[in-house]
Design goal:
This protein is an all-alpha fold. It contains eleven helices and no strands. The protein has one domain (3-261).
Length: 265
């Protein structure tokens, strides 16, 4: 990235951060949804679901305490997906309100517009996941990770947030309206429920179990859970990183193609 492109990206990042500060209700809504899910699953369903976990979690806990440990990593991942949904809305809003056409007339690096959205969303996702992790600890989540394992978990979460961000940037560019952009990333909020996030995949019917075991959220959830709570990770870490890198590369080129083809609408 050239010096000019870096400076322009910094300017666009500052623009997106100002938007977040001016509309804090959107950020609160995005972060509030995972918190509601956390409280709901721990305090309403946790006692029953935790008793049926068996050996699915490698900590000395039972009932609600066991389920708080089991579900917290999935809720943290859900936070990254929720923040990414806001990115799609923000990108679609820019594309439909004429601001992109104005940017095209200015001497700025074309890539800086998307880079600003990505960096702004990544900062918001990291902050949101940190907040949700703190709340999870407050309701009974008890990670046993070493400092090195915490560092690895943080790296995985940042990589996942980057993958979701580039994907939702592409979805926002492809959307015909802001309303469409708000709905198109919804599958990111549903996939954790169809994986190992909330119940072990071994408890699912055969067809659903096959899908749950091979969709992207499952290896990421298993890796994060293994890093934070102990237990074997096996090849799950490589699968998790592979999924994230594949999504980043594919979504980046898709976003670049859409932005060049449809500079403004």
């Amino acid at each position: 990235m050239s010096t000019y492109a870096l400076a322009d990206s910094t300017t666009m990042l500052r623009r997106n951060l100002l938007h977040m500060r001016r509309y804090p209700s959107l950020a609160l809504l995005i972060i509030g949804m995972p918190v509601v899910f956390l409280l709901l699953f721990v305090y309403v369903f946790g006692g029953t679901l935790g008793s049926g976990l068996g050996s699915a979690i490698h900590v000395a806990a039972t009932g609600r305490a066991a389920y708080a440990n089991y579900v917290a990593p999935a809720i943290i991942l859900l936070t990254a997906a929720a923040v990414a949904q806001g990115t799609a809305i923000s990108v679609a809003s820019d594309m439909t309100q004429g601001i992109i056409a104005r940017f095209r007339t200015m001497a700025i690096a074309p890539s800086s517009v998307l880079t600003g959205h990505v960096l702004g969303s990544l900062i918001q996702a990291v902050a949101g996941m940190a907040v949700v992790t703190g709340i999870a600890i407050g309701v009974g989540f008890r990670p046993t990770a070493s400092p090195l394992e915490w560092l690895a978990a943080a790296g995985l979460l940042i990589l996942l947030a980057l993958a979701f961000t580039w994907l939702t940037v592409a979805l926002g560019l492809a959307a015909k309206s802001v309303e469409t952009a708000s709905n198109s990333p919804m599958f990111l909020l549903l996939l954790p429920f169809l994986g190992s996030g909330f119940v072990p995949t071994s408890s699912m019917p055969a067809g659903l179990r096959w899908f749950a075991e091979y969709q992207p959220f499952t290896p990421v959830t298993n890796t994060l859970r293994g890093l934070l709570l102990g237990g074997g990770i096996g090849d799950q870490a490589w699968l998790a990183v592979g999924w994230c890198v594949a999504i980043i590369i594919g979504s980046y080129f898709w976003s670049r193609s859409l932005y060049r083809r449809h500079p403004a609408r």
